[in-house]
Design brief:
Blueprint (H helix, E strand, L loop, with lengths): L2 H17 L5 H7 L4 E2 L19 E7 L12 E11 L2 E6 L4 E7 L8 H4 L17 E5 L6 E3 L13 E2 L2 E2 L8 E9 L2 E8 L2 E12 L2 E10 L6 E7 L5 E4 L3 E6 L3 E9 L5 E5 L3 E6 L6 E11 L3 H11 L19 E3 L10 E6 L13 E6 L4 E6 L4 E5 L8 E7 L7 E5 L2 E6 L2 E6 L9 E6 L12 E7 L3 E6 L12 E3 L2 E2 L8 E4 L6 E6 L5 E4 L6 E4 L9 E5 L4 E2 L19 E3 L7 E6 L12 E5 L4 E10 L2 E9 L9 E4 L6 E6 L10 E8 L7 E7 L2 E6 L5 H4 L5 E6 L21 E3 L3 E4 L5 E5 L6 E11 L5 E10 L24 H6 L9 H10 L27 E3 L5 E3 L2 H9 L22 H13 L3
Parallel strand pairs: 1-21, 36-40
Antiparallel strand pairs: 2-3, 3-4, 4-5, 5-6, 7-14, 8-9, 10-11, 10-30, 11-12, 12-13, 13-20, 14-19, 15-16, 16-17, 17-20, 18-19, 21-26, 22-48, 23-24, 24-25, 25-26, 27-28, 28-29, 29-30, 31-32, 32-35, 33-34, 35-36, 37-38, 38-39, 39-41, 42-43, 43-44, 44-45, 45-56, 46-47, 47-48, 49-50, 50-54, 51-52, ...
Helix pairs in contact: 7-9
Amino acid sequence: MNSTSHWSIAMLCLVVITALGLLPTCFLGCFSEKRIITENTFDSLSFNSFVEPDFPFMSTYLDARKLGSRFPDDNVVARGLVIQLDDSAYVCFDQDLLRWSVAWTGKSLTKSMLPEVSYHDFFNKKNTVPLVAGQPDIANGIYPGWSSGKPVLTDVRPKEQSREGFTWGPLPPHYGRWQGSYVYENSLILAYSVAGVDIFEMPDCVRHDKEIVYTRTLEVGASSDTLFLNAAEVRDGASAASDGNVAYIYYAQDSVIAVSIKSLEATATVSVSGGRYISVSVPPSSQTRNMTVCLWRGLTKNLKNFRSIADKAALRKLPAFREGSPPHWSGEVLTKGKIAPDTAAFVTDLLTLPIPNPWKRNVRVTDIAFLDEQRAAITTFEGDVWVVSGIDKQLAQLSWKRFASGLYEPMSIEVYKGQLYIFGKAGIVRLHDLNGDGEADYYENFCDLMQQSAESYEWAADMVISEKYGILIAKGGGVTARPGITKTLTAGFRAGSNHSGVIMRISLDGKQTEIISTGFRAPYLGFHPISGMLTATDQQGNYVPSTPIYVIEKDDFLGVPATSHRTDKPSPKRPLTWIPHRIDRSAGSQVWMTTQQMGPLNNALLHFSFGRPGLFRVLIDSTSNGLQGAVVSVNANYSTPIIKGTMGPHDGQLYMAGFNLFGSSSKGISAIQRLRYTGKNSYMPNHFKVGRQGVLLSFDSALDSRKATNPSSYRVKRWNYKRTEAYGSGHFKLDGTPGEEILPVLASYLSLDKKKVLLLIPDMREVDQMEVLYKVTASDGKSVSDGVWFSINQVDNLDLRAQGFVNVDLKKLQLSKAQFAAQIKYDPPITRERGKELFEKMGCIGCHSPGTETAGMYGPPFKGLYGSMRKMADGSTLEAREAYLKESILDPSKKVVKGYDAEMPSFQGILSDSDIEALILYIMYLKY
């Protein structure tokens, strides 16, 4: 029988065995191709725990002030590494103070951090302050974990780092510095220096029967002075003792906390001071020393057990961590992207994310940065870094590899000189793959000089790196949206740190910082890599009347008193432009398209919208007294909110990252989208100018003259905002009364090239917000309907002839008051249909469900609202009738429903009386 016959019989047997279900899974795997994921469906996925049991650490903040009477009552950690010692033993290492904040057993932390509470429940924003969930054993208060020359049991950080009763940020560099951490298998090696002496530490534990001993395996460099390790603090101790190698503090009649030290190279000793503090002293030496510190809490009768366990644990050695660790996440995940059809000038392709994956890990993307032409790295809200390769035109096979984990809410990633820099609440972390296996082994602290409080909303929001201009970062303010730690300073803001709500510059070596501008609520950055022009957005809220875009200069103040961090009281800077709430209620960052491959968007500044979601093209007008700006929509299909973006080095297209959590109109959870230029005609405006004669708009394509020159094709409104402590602002006429002014278009003209439109508008003046809606036709017959939103900071004369306009009749601008009043349009009839249209148009639907849905909603659902009894946050109860609904629309912070926050802007001046009546009528009928 030949080999072909043998193969045929074998295959026949294989078919029969497979049909009978007798073939082992591993054998089947040999004949199946590796799965390629083609679609992400978050709602159908099953994820493992946010905290991964087989990875040695996670980053967090922690309130450990209420551990019990024998523990220090001043113990808050802003930048903590929670290290998993075994399946139920943990320690929190404070990176700022280089101390063991608390070690405990049992459960880990309360499920509190925002990334964790929303990990499975994607729209859950009810985060709290993390607390120790288990039984605390060892703790230290707010003072350095180490000192040189003498024990130090007070906070040595300068007063410049103190704010409203708390001190934030790292120790002075000459005193001590956090260097970073090495991951080795399931262990974490901490690297730091004290008075210039390098120290490496591996936290661990040893168990025997019901006893647990915590161990600190140390490698201490040569030192010319005695070093002191603050090991434990015990309040209300009954007595203390020490024999040099072991120190004890007895408490509660039958309990004791003990610390021991073993070292072959040094005569290190343990002592007790003040009957409260146990410290280890390490004498000077010209040699590196290895030692083991053991810590234990238990009953006095079990002291012998501690000594026995400590002796066995003594003189452990650190592993070869400098050589890198074996991989934690072997293998890769393959996905296939989705290419959009070329139906418009700009379309969005999808880079399918690596979910599901072997680790059942959620992937909510916060930022993206390219490593080379076809490889990029992404950060996730979960604290992970992934590297994706195969990014080409077709996206046919994307290969995903996990690179790092455990990071502290990393919101930004940059590639600089081939290395990955991550900006999160821990500061700027630089990642190193020491053995070339495709995973980070060393998480280096590149810079932690920016202060970080333990407020969950003091975001490490944005970062850009420039060889010429340094590292620029943006930090959020201490917003009171959720329970926090620091005191409330003003409506909407807690104290946070001295670096909350600021933009800073960091030197390229990470050793120097400079505050550029202050007074932000939640800023994101835009940066031109050639000119160095720096822009920033902020997010509507208290003291921020609507979404602004600023051009940032040194010493700018942007309007939020709680984050001004200055003693003078300057006026807030006027933005380049405001954007109305209904157009973009939540901003992301910005990017300059310094490319020649995006057609009309080449060299354009693009603004990312989380709330809309989508993109805006930012138009900039130079005047005799500075700049003013406008935004226009870049229309495409955006599947999820957008926070960050970058240009692809191989194709010049825009790659955008984002995830959903805060009040977006999108219901998508997370995606990486590629905005791709197809070469088709674009019809959006590309420039604007305002002047005494009116408004000039320039379009990407030529327009049909019949509609372009018809004034009824345009609708123009203007209004001002009021910057107050209220959340957002209503709309106000130029005389200060609530409302919007509808301006007549007296005539419209088309330029000689048919790409520019001049709108003659009377009474042009400086104003916060102007809106021009248009409905015209392009010369190729395409219907073009959209809007332009801008601010007027300066009114000059327009040079009409230079702009291509001739025979413009400026006499049409000379209107009498009666003629002007005749141009005002009146409200349409009050109907449920009009109320529904307003409900959707004004963005109400993004925060309130017309049904009973609460997931992902900032406000209560509307079905059954009318006539129901409402429980308020102040404990009162009222019936939801017309008066209450109207008050909630005009002054939403006056009565807040229990369980919700005062985060709705006022619609005073935005909605007319008849608008409000129509909206209430719509809500009334949602009862049925």
